[in-house]
User: Fold this.
Amino acid sequence: MSENTEHNPFADAAAGEGTQAPTGGEQPGPAQGAAPEDGATNPRIAELEAEVSAMRDKWMRAEAEMQNVRNRAKREVEDARQYAVQKFAKDVVEAAENLKRALASLPQATEGEDNILTRMREGIESTERSFMGILERNGISAVDAKGKPFDANLHQAMAEQHSDEHAAGTVMESWTPAWTLHGRLLKPAMVVVSKGPAQAG
Assistant:
Protein backbone atom coordinates (compact mmCIF):
# COMPACT_ATOMS: atom_id res chain seq x y z
CA MET A 1 0.00 0.00 0.00
CA SER A 2 1.36 3.38 -1.03
CA GLU A 3 1.96 6.22 1.48
CA ASN A 4 -0.64 9.10 1.47
CA THR A 5 1.21 12.25 0.61
CA GLU A 6 -1.81 14.43 -0.22
CA HIS A 7 -1.40 18.04 1.06
CA ASN A 8 -4.15 19.41 3.39
CA PRO A 9 -4.40 23.20 3.10
CA PHE A 10 -6.93 23.47 5.99
CA ALA A 11 -4.48 21.91 8.44
CA ASP A 12 -1.80 24.45 7.47
CA ALA A 13 -4.21 27.35 8.03
CA ALA A 14 -5.22 26.07 11.48
CA ALA A 15 -1.62 25.64 12.55
CA GLY A 16 -0.77 29.18 11.53
CA GLU A 17 -3.63 30.89 13.42
CA GLY A 18 -1.97 30.76 16.88
CA THR A 19 1.36 32.16 15.74
CA GLN A 20 0.23 34.90 13.40
CA ALA A 21 1.71 38.25 14.47
CA PRO A 22 -0.56 41.29 14.70
CA THR A 23 -0.65 43.37 11.61
CA GLY A 24 -0.77 47.06 11.06
CA GLY A 25 1.48 47.90 14.08
CA GLU A 26 -1.30 47.23 16.68
CA GLN A 27 -0.05 46.72 20.27
CA PRO A 28 -2.03 44.89 22.99
CA GLY A 29 -3.52 47.40 25.54
CA PRO A 30 -4.07 46.95 29.29
CA ALA A 31 -6.91 44.73 30.42
CA GLN A 32 -10.25 46.47 30.92
CA GLY A 33 -10.78 47.62 34.54
CA ALA A 34 -7.11 47.39 35.50
CA ALA A 35 -6.01 49.45 38.56
CA PRO A 36 -4.38 52.81 37.85
CA GLU A 37 -0.64 53.11 38.06
CA ASP A 38 0.97 53.64 41.49
CA GLY A 39 0.59 57.22 42.71
CA ALA A 40 -2.38 57.96 40.49
CA THR A 41 -5.41 59.48 42.32
CA ASN A 42 -8.97 59.81 41.17
CA PRO A 43 -10.14 63.32 42.24
CA ARG A 44 -13.77 62.26 42.39
CA ILE A 45 -13.00 59.41 44.83
CA ALA A 46 -11.02 61.75 47.08
CA GLU A 47 -13.90 64.24 47.04
CA LEU A 48 -16.45 61.56 47.98
CA GLU A 49 -14.25 60.25 50.79
CA ALA A 50 -13.97 63.78 52.20
CA GLU A 51 -17.76 64.20 52.05
CA VAL A 52 -18.29 60.86 53.81
CA SER A 53 -15.83 61.84 56.55
CA ALA A 54 -17.55 65.19 57.06
CA MET A 55 -20.99 63.59 57.19
CA ARG A 56 -19.76 60.99 59.68
CA ASP A 57 -18.38 63.77 61.91
CA LYS A 58 -21.67 65.70 61.76
CA TRP A 59 -23.65 62.56 62.56
CA MET A 60 -21.47 61.74 65.58
CA ARG A 61 -21.83 65.31 66.90
CA ALA A 62 -25.60 65.22 66.39
CA GLU A 63 -25.85 61.84 68.13
CA ALA A 64 -23.82 63.11 71.11
CA GLU A 65 -26.03 66.20 71.39
CA MET A 66 -29.19 64.08 71.23
CA GLN A 67 -27.83 61.85 74.00
CA ASN A 68 -27.18 64.93 76.14
CA VAL A 69 -30.74 66.14 75.51
CA ARG A 70 -32.14 62.72 76.49
CA ASN A 71 -30.04 62.67 79.67
CA ARG A 72 -31.17 66.18 80.66
CA ALA A 73 -34.81 65.33 80.00
CA LYS A 74 -34.50 62.15 82.06
CA ARG A 75 -32.99 64.08 85.00
CA GLU A 76 -35.69 66.74 84.80
CA VAL A 77 -38.46 64.14 84.77
CA GLU A 78 -36.87 62.32 87.71
CA ASP A 79 -36.50 65.56 89.68
CA ALA A 80 -40.09 66.51 88.93
CA ARG A 81 -41.28 63.10 90.07
CA GLN A 82 -39.24 63.11 93.28
CA TYR A 83 -39.77 66.70 94.36
CA ALA A 84 -43.31 67.40 93.13
CA VAL A 85 -44.58 66.53 96.63
CA GLN A 86 -42.19 68.92 98.36
CA LYS A 87 -44.90 71.26 99.66
CA PHE A 88 -46.99 68.33 100.87
CA ALA A 89 -43.91 66.78 102.52
CA LYS A 90 -43.29 69.97 104.53
CA ASP A 91 -46.80 69.73 105.97
CA VAL A 92 -46.27 66.04 106.74
CA VAL A 93 -43.05 66.62 108.69
CA GLU A 94 -44.89 69.28 110.69
CA ALA A 95 -47.25 66.53 111.85
CA ALA A 96 -44.25 64.35 112.75
CA GLU A 97 -42.80 67.16 114.86
CA ASN A 98 -46.14 67.59 116.62
CA LEU A 99 -46.09 63.90 117.56
CA LYS A 100 -42.60 64.38 118.99
CA ARG A 101 -43.79 67.39 121.01
CA ALA A 102 -46.76 65.41 122.31
CA LEU A 103 -44.40 62.73 123.61
CA ALA A 104 -42.12 65.32 125.18
CA SER A 105 -45.06 66.93 126.96
CA LEU A 106 -45.96 63.73 128.80
CA PRO A 107 -44.40 63.17 132.24
CA GLN A 108 -41.60 60.66 132.53
CA ALA A 109 -42.73 57.10 133.11
CA THR A 110 -42.72 56.18 136.80
CA GLU A 111 -43.45 53.01 138.65
CA GLY A 112 -47.09 52.79 139.64
CA GLU A 113 -48.27 55.56 137.33
CA ASP A 114 -51.83 55.63 136.10
CA ASN A 115 -52.55 52.92 133.52
CA ILE A 116 -54.27 55.40 131.22
CA LEU A 117 -51.12 57.56 131.06
CA THR A 118 -48.98 54.52 130.31
CA ARG A 119 -51.23 53.39 127.49
CA MET A 120 -51.37 56.92 126.07
CA ARG A 121 -47.58 57.17 125.99
CA GLU A 122 -47.24 53.75 124.36
CA GLY A 123 -49.89 54.63 121.78
CA ILE A 124 -48.19 57.89 120.79
CA GLU A 125 -44.77 56.20 120.63
CA SER A 126 -46.16 53.44 118.41
CA THR A 127 -47.85 55.98 116.15
CA GLU A 128 -44.66 58.01 115.85
CA ARG A 129 -42.56 54.96 114.94
CA SER A 130 -45.06 53.90 112.29
CA PHE A 131 -45.30 57.41 110.91
CA MET A 132 -41.51 57.81 110.71
CA GLY A 133 -41.26 54.48 108.87
CA ILE A 134 -43.76 55.70 106.28
CA LEU A 135 -41.80 58.92 105.79
CA GLU A 136 -38.49 57.09 105.35
CA ARG A 137 -39.99 54.72 102.78
CA ASN A 138 -41.00 57.79 100.77
CA GLY A 139 -37.58 59.44 100.90
CA ILE A 140 -38.18 61.77 103.86
CA SER A 141 -35.51 61.60 106.56
CA ALA A 142 -34.88 63.39 109.85
CA VAL A 143 -31.24 64.31 110.60
CA ASP A 144 -30.42 64.99 114.24
CA ALA A 145 -28.20 68.05 114.59
CA LYS A 146 -27.22 67.93 118.28
CA GLY A 147 -23.48 67.67 118.87
CA LYS A 148 -22.59 68.32 115.23
CA PRO A 149 -20.75 71.32 113.79
CA PHE A 150 -23.10 74.07 112.70
CA ASP A 151 -23.89 73.75 108.98
CA ALA A 152 -25.72 76.66 107.37
CA ASN A 153 -26.97 74.28 104.66
CA LEU A 154 -28.83 72.15 107.23
CA HIS A 155 -29.25 74.25 110.36
CA GLN A 156 -30.92 77.51 111.29
CA ALA A 157 -29.40 79.12 114.40
CA MET A 158 -32.11 80.36 116.74
CA ALA A 159 -29.72 81.39 119.52
CA GLU A 160 -26.07 81.34 120.60
CA GLN A 161 -24.91 80.54 124.11
CA HIS A 162 -21.64 80.11 125.96
CA SER A 163 -20.86 76.52 126.88
CA ASP A 164 -18.00 74.85 128.73
CA GLU A 165 -18.98 71.46 127.27
CA HIS A 166 -19.28 72.35 123.59
CA ALA A 167 -16.67 73.92 121.35
CA ALA A 168 -17.56 77.13 119.57
CA GLY A 169 -19.65 76.50 116.46
CA THR A 170 -21.11 73.24 117.77
CA VAL A 171 -24.85 72.62 117.93
CA MET A 172 -25.49 72.27 121.66
CA GLU A 173 -29.26 71.90 121.40
CA SER A 174 -31.63 71.02 118.58
CA TRP A 175 -35.27 71.99 118.89
CA THR A 176 -36.20 70.20 115.67
CA PRO A 177 -34.27 67.89 113.31
CA ALA A 178 -33.24 68.77 109.78
CA TRP A 179 -35.64 67.18 107.29
CA THR A 180 -34.55 66.07 103.82
CA LEU A 181 -36.46 64.78 100.81
CA HIS A 182 -34.35 62.38 98.71
CA GLY A 183 -31.24 64.08 100.07
CA ARG A 184 -32.45 67.63 99.36
CA LEU A 185 -33.10 69.93 102.30
CA LEU A 186 -36.79 70.16 103.08
CA LYS A 187 -36.71 72.01 106.39
CA PRO A 188 -33.66 73.16 108.38
CA ALA A 189 -33.08 72.16 111.97
CA MET A 190 -33.82 74.83 114.59
CA VAL A 191 -30.70 74.85 116.76
CA VAL A 192 -28.82 76.60 119.55
CA VAL A 193 -25.16 77.08 118.73
CA SER A 194 -22.33 77.16 121.25
CA LYS A 195 -20.16 80.27 121.54
CA GLY A 196 -17.54 78.35 123.49
CA PRO A 197 -16.53 78.91 127.11
CA ALA A 198 -17.25 82.32 128.57
CA GLN A 199 -14.07 84.34 129.03
CA ALA A 200 -13.17 85.22 132.61
CA GLY A 201 -13.92 88.82 133.56
The mean pLDDT is 81. The two ends are 161 Å apart (CA to CA).
